[in-house]
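Readers of this paper often ask what the protein records in our data store actually look like. The remainder of this section carries one protein's record, kept here as part of the documentation.

:::
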Amino acid sequence: MASRAPSYPQIARAQWLLGLDAPESQEEIRRAWKERVARTHPDRNAERANAATRVTAAFNQARELCEWWLEAGEAWPKPMAPEALREAEPERVVRPPARTPEQNRSSFRPGDHVVRSLPGREPANEPLHTVRVLSDDRVELEDGTFAAPAELAPVAYGCPVCGLCSGPAVERPALRPCPPCLAELVQLERSERAVEPALRGIRSRARAGRATAAELGDSGLEEAARERFRWAEGVARRPREERRGRMLAAYAHAYALWASGSTARDGAGV
C-alpha cells in the first residue's frame, strides 16, 4: 500500500469477506481469516485449484487491510458486499498523526506522569508528578508548580510504537509515544530515508523495554515490548514501498491512544 491508506469501500469489502463487523483485536481478524482460508485453500480444493487460489488471495488481502485499519485506529465502516460498493472512492494519503497544540508545543498532555529532569540530579530520584494544564511554554503540575517542557521527562508509561517503557511501577502506566519515537516521527514525516533507521531504533528500544518491564515486574508491558519487536520485524520484511505507510499508521494509532488517555491496563492493544 506504500504511503497510501486503503479507502473506506476497500475496508468495507474486506470486513464483508471475513465476516467481521468492527473487530477489536488482531486475534479476532486472524481467527476469522483462518476459518475461511481453512475451507478455501487450494490444497483442499484440488479440483478447483485456480478458483481456490483466487479466493484465498482475496481473504489474505482482506486480512492485511483489516489489520492495517485496526493498527491505524480508524473508525470501522459498515461491512458491504462488493455489489453494494458502486461508487469508487479515491485512495487517501496517510497523513502524519494529528497533534493537539499542546502536544506540538511540549510533547506532553494532561494526565502524563513526569519527573523533573535537572542538571546534576538523577530523574529516578525525583518525585512523581502529573501534568495538569499546558499553556504556552509552561507545564502546570498537579501541585500547582510550573516547569518548562525541557525540564520534565515522561515516566510510568509504555510506548505503543516501540514498547519502550519507564518506571516507577504504577497501577496504570500510561500509553504514550516515547521521546525517541517522537523524534523519529519528525524524520519519518520528512523523508523516506528515515524508515530503516527508525525500524532499527524501534527494535532496539523494544529489547530495552522488555528488560525494563522485567525489572518492574510488569508482565503486560513486557509482552507489549515483545509484540512491538515482532511487529517491527514484520514491517522490515514488507516490500520497501509499504514500510513508511505502515509506520505512519502505527504512530497515528499511538497518538490516538495518547490523546484518549489510555493506559496499559485498558486492553487498548499496543
